[in-house]
Amino acid sequence: MIESGIRGNKNDRLTEGEMRRLEDALATLTRMITRSVLRGRLRFARSQDKEQNDSAVCFDRIRAAAKPDEPLTLSVQAAARTLGLSRASTYAAIRAGQIPSIRFGKRIVIPRVAVDTMLSQADSCKSNRV
After folding, report:
1. Under a CB-based contact definition with an 8 Å cutoff, are residues 65 and 119 in contact?
2. What is the per-residue burial (b if ≥16 Cβ within 10 Å, else e) of 46-72?
């Protein structure tokens, strides 16, 4: 039969000094672990803040690029008119990944900034060729 607990003889007991050193070592180890955990939490919190700041900056850029009275997104038909494409070819370009889009259920919208960027890149390419 196995007894629970550890039993030893009288010579196995710790002295006062050994007990104090063991308690000090345990306290030091606890502090080290606590600091490590806190550093990890701080690193995680900073990364979360950075992601939120990055998305906020991105949204601010989008908002700054849009004119105050214009919506931030275009319908597929409006984007097709702006780009000089047919509706079918605009849908094909969206499926091919050539035009970035956002899907809300069955509705597809195109960020105005994406259309403006595509047109400005086309203008710069055209001026470089001439």
Report:
1. no
2. eeeeeeeeeeeeeeeeeeeebeeeeee
User: Collapsing DSSP states into helix, strand and coil, what is residue 107?
Assistant: strand
Interval 5-53: pLDDT, tens: 555 566 667 788 888 888 888 888 888 888 888 888 888 777 776 666 6
Tokens of 90: 């605009």
Note whether 90 and 105 are within 8 A (CB). Answer: no
Answer yes or no: are the C-beta atoms of 83 and 119 closer than 8 Å. Answer: yes
Tell me the residue type at 75: S
Count of C-beta atoms within a 10 Å radius of residue 23: 10
pLDDT for position 19: 87
DSSP state of 106: T
Tokens 């955990």 locate to 37
> CA 67, CA 71: separation in Å to the nearest integer?
8
CB 58 within 8 A of CB 92: no
